[in-house]
């Protein structure tokens, strides 16, 4: 690996780790210390406005309904999420954020906006465009890898052919 | 859109309690907003005017700001974006924002 490529790979890993660590730290020291990062991401997927079905939310998060049910049970208990049955079709369960859930959603979104603003502020318009395009490409690549791993293909085969880890 | 009305169908139900259901004058919005602020910050209603600078003059932290936003959304049946929040400077700006969205 070229030295620049090595530096880039290390920085990328460091970003993944540190964003997660910082989010955890910010949570534990903040107003919502009873929430985990995973729970916050569930709150984020439910969103602050219209109630969502369990299936919609599970699809957004890329998890099974069973896993989501466990997460939602916990969030209902902690009073961040409310659960209602559809008035027309009682089989459909809709979930929405409580006032407390909406506050957690807003605070979490502020964390990400501050982070993005801090990175963007010193850059020129041209640099911002390049950075955004590059980040979008990284995002698309990672999503593509995720899809491959979750589509039932053999782990070893993907690692050997595509990512050469 | 920075600030938008949520569902027009929900605005028709008749109830005296929800100010979004009557013609929204600036006075009604100001009254509701200052009620919320005085409760949130434990201050007197007379402490607020349209010229009060929200971040410079009021002891409002970011959680309290979002409490205000979430309560305003609920009360006036609105969706308030982060971009709209960033433009707010004074109490009068909040009144304008809600008044324009409710038109």
Please sum up the structure shown.
With 165 residues, chain A is mainly α. Chain A has helices at 3-29, 37-46, 54-61, 65-77, 99-120, 125-150, 155-163, and strands at residues 52-53, 81-85, 93-97.
Q: Classify the oligomer.
A: heterodimer
Helix segment tally of chain B: 5
Order of helices and strands of chain B: EHHHEHH
Helix content of chain B: 40-55%
State the major sheet of chain A: 3 strands, antiparallel
CATH topology of the domain at 45-103 in chain B: Non-ribosomal Peptide Synthetase Peptidyl Carrier Protein, Chain A
Q: Strands of the biggest beta sheet of chain B: in what spatial order?
A: 1-2
Q: Label the structural class of chain A.
A: mainly alpha
CATH top level assignment of the largest domain in chain A: Mainly Alpha
Q: Which stretches of chain B are low in confidence, meaning pLDDT under 50 for 5 or more residues running? A: 8-17
Mean pLDDT of chain A: 85
CATH architecture of the domain at 45-103 in chain B: Orthogonal Bundle
* C-alpha-based Rg of chain A, rounded: 19 Å
The residue ranges of chain A in which pLDDT falls below 50 over 5 or more consecutive positions are 154-165
What is the CA–CA distance across the termini of chain B?
Answer: 14 Å
The largest interface is: A-B, 11 and 11 residues
Distance between the termini of chain A: 12 Å
Radius of gyration of chain B (Å): 13 Å
Query: Can you identify the CATH superfamily of the domain at 45-103 in chain B?
Result: ACP-like
């Amino acid at each position: 690996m070229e030295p620049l490529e090595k530096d880039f790979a290390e920085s990328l890993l460091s970003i993944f780790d540190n964003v997660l660590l910082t989010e955890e730290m910010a949570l534990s020291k903040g107003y919502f210390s009873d929430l985990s990062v995973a729970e916050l991401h569930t709150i984020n997927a439910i969103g602050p406005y219209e109630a969502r079905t369990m299936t919609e939310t599970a699809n957004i998060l890329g998890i099974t309904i069973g896993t989501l049910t466990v997460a939602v049970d916990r969030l209902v208990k902690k009073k961040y999420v409310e659960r209602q049955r559809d008035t027309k079709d009682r089989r459909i369960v809709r979930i929405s954020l409580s006032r407390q859930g909406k506050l957690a959603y807003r605070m979490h979104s502020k964390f990400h906006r501050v982070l993005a603003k801090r990175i963007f502020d010193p850059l020129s318009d041209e640099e911002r465009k390049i950075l955004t395009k590059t980040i979008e490409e990284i995002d698309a690549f990672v999503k593509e890898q995720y899809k491959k791993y979750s589509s039932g293909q053999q782990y070893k085969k993907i690692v050997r052919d595509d990512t050469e880890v | 859109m920075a600030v938008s009305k949520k569902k027009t169908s929900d605005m028709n139900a008749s109830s005296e309690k929800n100010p979004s259901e009557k013609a929204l004058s600036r006075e009604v919005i100001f009254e509701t907003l200052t009620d919320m602020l005085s409760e949130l910050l434990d201050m007197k209603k007379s402490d607020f005017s349209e010229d009060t600078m929200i971040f410079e003059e009021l002891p409002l932290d970011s959680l309290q700001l979002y409490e205000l936003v979430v309560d305003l959304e609920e009360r006036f049946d609105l969706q308030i974006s982060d971009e709209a929040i960033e433009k707010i400077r004074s109490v009068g700006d909040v009144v304008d924002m809600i008044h324009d969205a409710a038109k």
